[in-house]
Specification:
The protein has 140 residues and is of the alpha+beta class. The protein contains three helices and six strands. It has one domain: Hotdog Thioesterase (Thiol Ester Dehydrase, Chain A, Roll), CATH 3.10.129.
Length: 140
């Protein structure tokens, strides 16, 4: 099975213009994939000087979708839930995504994503079910 390269995964992240709009960084990982990183500031904040939950949910959704893409599957989100454990304040150090595929089916995929800091502190955890719309590359 042909899988996307790290460069193709990163390019795909940037095709999602909302990631660039939110100024979320796409950072290559040693395993040949990528993760999303955010250093929250006032542009990401709600009225309480913490990163808006929608920003974190967008990061998690995108990271999980890209994890599916790394398995050569294009997906759209069917359902998404997120639990917030700690606020990402505007002075919080950088946070990043850790996405995992839990179910890799022909028609659906299930993933989870943690949003953590460099010390491993868990800020949020998301779960999502995705519908497989096709493949990035034909397997012929």
């Amino acid at each position: 099975m042909r899988k996307p390269t790290q460069e193709q995964i990163i390019e795909f992240y940037h095709a999602n213009t909302v990631i660039d709009y939110l100024e979320v960084e796409v950072v290559p990982t040693p395993d040949g994939e990528a993760r999303l990183e955010l250093c929250a500031d006032s542009r990401h904040a709600n009225l309480y000087s913490m990163a808006h939950g929608g920003v974190l949910a967008t990061m998690a959704d995108t990271a999980m979708g890209a994890k599916c893409l790394a398995l050569n599957k294009r997906v759209v989100t069917i359902s998404l839930s997120i639990q917030f454990m700690h606020a990402v304040m505007t002075d919080t150090p950088r946070v990043f995504t850790e996405a995992t595929v839990l179910h890799d089916g022909r028609k659906t995929m299930v993933c989870e994503c943690k949003i953590v800091d460099a010390k491993g502190k868990l800020y949020a955890k998301a779960n999502a079910t995705f519908f497989v719309t096709g493949k990035l590359f034909d397997e012929s």
